[in-house]
Amino acid sequence: MSRASTRLLRHINVTPSLRQVRPISSSSVTSASITSNTITDKPPPPPQEFTYGAYQKVGGPSAKPVHTIRIPKFESLEAERAFRKLHHAAALRWLGYNGYNNEGAGGHVTVRDPILTDHYWINPHGKSFSHMRPEDLVLVSKGGEVKEGGNMHSINPAGHIIHSAVHEARPDVVAAVHCHSVPSKAFSAMGFYNDHSIYEGFGGIAFKADEGVHIAQALGNTKGVILQNHGHLTVAKTVDGAAFLFGAMDRCIQAQLLADAACAGRGTSTIKIAHEEAEYTRNTYNDEMVYIMFQSAFEDVVRASNGEFPMHVQGEIPRE
Ligand SMILES: [Zn+2]
User: Fold this and answer.
1) Which positions fall inside the Class II aldolase/adducin N-terminal domain (predicted)?
2) What's the CA-to-centroid distance between 110 and ligand 1, angstroms?
């Protein structure tokens, strides 16, 4: 544990505030606080399986069954691919509606293909997020080649460099969302992010392969990373979850900037959430929970599409 004692494990907690679980060194860790991470020289690989939420039935054994929203199962990998592409396009539209398509060709969302698992889908370079359709998405190989089967359209080279490194470093991750937001730029520029997963080595637009590797290293085992003076990036096992985390993180950053500014003006300080509560909340936001949190936004996108987008794809099987 001696070398491990210098290793800092960083966790990101994006709700209900950006209060970050503190970096944990082996000397300060208690057994109760080690949940998903065991302190070793090398962090364990993230779990491949989804962690589904446990629904607590209320009303006793005689209560009638109620409809629940859960990550579905699929009749085939083709159905799962169609599902991922529909939700990918919907997540991009939602990001566009919320002003994240605000720097021209900047911003990219990638989703791993369920059949060609070393390939990913990405938004076409320079196209509006708000009008994205599943058939607009581009299929890209591990080496960055645009492949037939998807839209034969160019992609953002920086998008490939960042996202391919993240997908390679995190086999558990299905989707990654990265856009530029004014609050995250402002927050990260303040340089007090010792408790957060943050990438400080912004080397201009990410055209060098090692930039992507460094960002993936900074992300580590967490749900999100702040790219200093740049923006932020979130990952999840669904594109819905990654989009939810992206928006949640941005709102937390905005809230904290406002609270910190107000406190500075009044000479007071913000009230911090205790480590235990932050850790409990972080663990509550499992893979299924972050998926569920996005489904009202998905419904908004589907309804706004006036019949262009379905709520479900063929071969989607609801989970009980
Ligand atoms: Zn960027």
Assistant:
1) 86-257
2) 13
